[in-house]
Specification:
373 residues, three-stranded antiparallel β-sheet
Length: 373
């Protein structure tokens, strides 16, 4: 009787394993057919534990190939380069003929190409557009105009949880443009594809519209130079001025910052306010409301590289400061998903809390860009 029971249990376990394996494979195939390649990869990887490792590796490679083509195709489409975009979407369909999104995009590209051919009469009038005033870059970037002005940089002695190297001083800046969001994986991956660089890890949190992470200061600078159009990292003064957007409070949201307003470690709120959510990862850019000037995620989500070497502030008024010509650590601003509320203050400087050499690539650091006007 005991032997029979053990045999029965063994058969049940084997049956469950077979069913589970079939379930992973089926889910992977379903995800692949609908163009959800991250989902497909996850299921194929799980299927490998039940055998068919060689076959699953081939399927995972197909997913990776699709994921490498898709961001390039999307950027070409958004840049209205419909002929080249169509070629990329067709390349994706050659790998996965069932991809509904790629098929739809091929049709849209063809319609646009047909419309361009049919449109033989030039317009006699023109309307203002962002393309007329925005820098010409290799991939589209949404820009926000930042006005020239004078502000008080740093924090007052009365500001809670400030540090003594946030000495207040007057700064005057020329106008400039700043990217509306931190640079995303979609944007950075296109750079990697074009230049043959290795793509940084997303730490398992997703690529696409998530802010790119695991990039060094040198990586960020190389991206800006490749992009063209005069793109560069912001100076520390430009960053704080844009973050404040005319405010003088600890945050551009006022005297407090909640986790419904930014992505930071909610177990460590500012000034002992009510605890909030700890998400433990980055969120897609634009997940929260912008500041008064239209910039998103200036508080939290990822620390952002600045152009400057870290240095002690001057005590007098300065115009368009760029920091010293050499140093040991580059400045980071904004706080991140794994840091508390105080680190997200408009005046908070990374070297108050931790130091990062320019060559390091932590998963809490990204960047955004500016262009001088």
């Amino acid at each position: 009787m005991k032997r029979t029971t053990l045999i029965f249990i063994g058969i049940c376990i084997l049956t469950l394993n077979i069913c589970q394996a079939q379930d992973y494979l089926q889910q992977g195939n379903d995800c692949f057919d609908r163009g959800d390649y991250d989902c497909a990869k996850t299921n194929y990887a799980a299927q490998k534990t039940y055998g068919s490792a060689s076959e699953m590796d081939k399927k995972i490679e197909q997913c990776n190939n699709c994921l490498s083509v898709l961001p390039i195709a999307n950027f070409l489409f958004s840049d209205k380069d419909y002929s080249r975009a169509k070629e990329q979407y067709e390349k994706l369909l050659a790998i996965n003929p069932k991809d509904p999104y790629a098929r739809k995009q091929v049709d849209l590209c063809q319609k646009q190409l047909n419309a361009n051919v049919a449109s033989t009469t030039p317009s006699t009038t023109s309307s203002p557009s962002s393309a007329a005033t925005s820098p010409k870059t290799k991939i589209p970037i949404e820009w926000v105009d930042i006005p020239a002005g004078t502000f008080t940089m740093g924090s007052p002695a009365s500001e809670a949880e400030r540090r003594d190297n946030e000495t207040q001083h007057q700064v005057t800046l020329n106008e400039f443009k700043m990217s509306k969001y931190a640079i995303t994986f979609d944007q950075y991956d296109a750079f990697c594809e074009a230049t043959g660089r290795n793509k940084p890890s997303d730490s398992g949190w997703g690529r696409g519209k998530h802010p790119v992470i695991n990039v060094s200061w040198d990586d960020a600078t190389a991206f800006a130079q490749w992009l063209g159009g005069g793109c560069r990292l912001p100076t520390e003064a430009e960053w704080e001025y844009a973050c404040r957007a005319g405010t003088t409070t600890p945050f551009h949201t006022g005297n407090n910052l909640t986790t419904s307003q930014a992505n930071y470690h909610g177990d460590y709120p500012y000034k002992n306010n009510t605890k909030g959510e700890y998400r433990g990862k980055t969120l897609p850019v634009g997940s929260f409301s912008s500041n008064a000037w239209g910039l998103h995620d200036m508080h939290g989500n990822v620390w952002e590289w600045c152009q400057d070497w870290y240095y002690d502030y001057p005590t007098g008024a300065v115009n368009n400061p760029k920091g010293p010509s050499s140093g040991t650590f580059r400045v980071l601003r904004g706080g991140g998903w794994d840091f508390g509320g105080r680190h997200c203050r408009s005046a908070a400087r990374s070297c108050n809390y931790f130091v990062v050499a320019p060559g390091r690539r932590p998963d809490s650091i990204g960047f955004r860009l500016v262009v001088s006007k």
